[in-house]
DNA sequence: GCCAACGTTGGC
DNA sequence: GCCAACGTTGGC
């Protein structure tokens, strides 16, 4: 099993939104970055787990945990001319963009803030802690995953 | 294929 | 709202 961190702006889609979805499951659509596309298409597998990160908000940080329930498949919003994610260069024969389905697992009683991550000896090496990082999905190591989970429990 | 200009992300 | 950092675009 591999671990990931998925960013989302809570004003757009928050962990509470995910928890309220039917079956607490939602497609992670709208990714329009090639590095992240490659991860969605090739690397992220069913059964992998991911942290849910809230960005561009008063307190950016990790707010919970989810599971990948469906592996990469074409992001059909790219074919929808009405969608804000429409891309005329993505065709049915050669889909350019991919998405996965995620399922809510838990919301942490208290979020792990970016500030906390940045000053933590282990976590400060995470991509999320580097400014200018543009990737909306990043891999998380086993060590980082365990450390973050322990932090989440400790804050209960 | 280079690279300057531009657009976007995202923390502060 | 500012701006640093990065990705993308497009002229050459």
Description:
The longest helix is centred in the last third of the chain and has 13 residues, at 142-154. The chain is built from four helices and six strands. The protein is globular and about 50 Å long. Helix content is 22%, strand content 31%. By secondary structure, the protein is an alpha+beta fold. It has a six-stranded mixed β-sheet with strand order 2-5-4-3-1-6. The chain has helices at residues 15-20, 34-43, 114-119, 142-154; strands at residues 3-8, 25-27, 49-54, 61-74, 98-113, 137-140. The mean pLDDT is 93. The chain binds a DNA duplex (12 and 12 nucleotides) through loops.
Determine the fraction of residues in helical runs and give it as a percent range.
10-25%
Structural class: alpha+beta
- Count of β-strands: 6
Give helix and strand order, one letter per element, not per position.
EHEHEEEHEH
Overall pLDDT level:
93
Query: Sheet with the most strands?
Result: 6 strands, mixed
Number of helices: 4
**Low-pLDDT residue spans:** none
The shape is: globular
Any idea what the radius of gyration is?
16 Å
SSE topology sketch:
Elements: E1 3-8, H1 15-20, E2 25-27, H2 34-43, E3 49-54, E4 61-74, E5 98-113, H3 114-119, E6 137-140, H4 142-154
Parallel strand pairs: 1-3
Antiparallel strand pairs: 1-6, 2-5, 3-4, 4-5
This protein binds a DNA duplex (12 and 12 nucleotides) through loops.
